[in-house]
Amino acid sequence: MTIKPGWQGRFFEDFEVGDIYQHPLGRTITETDNSWFTLLTMNTNQSHFNRQVGESSEFGRMLVVSPLTIAVAMGQSVIDTTQNAFANLGMDDLRLTAPVFAGDTLWSESIVLAVRESGSRPAAGIVTIRTRTLNQDAVEVLTFKRTFYVHRRGAERAGSLFPQAATPLTLEDV
């Protein structure tokens, strides 16, 4: 029997300008998600947690708090872009282009804008992507650029930390 490694993510060498990654996991935002995130981030704007205030707004309902939308979008992109990153260097040109409401399902995709060697870290490189997030109706709700350090394939610090059991897993164990 052989251990079949799961998806290990992309390394610096895997990124090419123009590549597009449609991130595989959509996420439906619930009213509970919105309330918890609003409380967690201490946002006191009632349009995010007071139904009466939300219904009297121009949107006619409560808005999802913007940092939650940003966090979901960034999280959705990790599987394809920063699984092997070790530092975000910046976010630029962040635009919240349409409102998000509880019940909306968010999907994100990223395009590689720039790839360059690191002058100070030979075991890594620097990648810049643009991510956009769409709702279930294909309306763009968010866009931003993000730059990050990512390990090169084989970099010492990029190795797996999966613990090795004293006895291997076998079919006889079942």
Automatic annotation (TrEMBL):
Molecular functions per Gene Ontology: lyase activity
Pfam families: MC_hydratase (PF19315)
Membrane-spanning residues: none
Domain of life: Bacteria
Record-linked InterPro entries: HotDog_dom_sf, MC_hydratase, MCH/BMMD
Database matches in SUPFAM superfamilies: Thioesterase/thiol ester dehydrase-isomerase (SSF54637)
Protein name according to UniProt: Bifunctional protein PaaZ
Native species: Pseudonocardia autotrophica (Amycolata autotrophica)
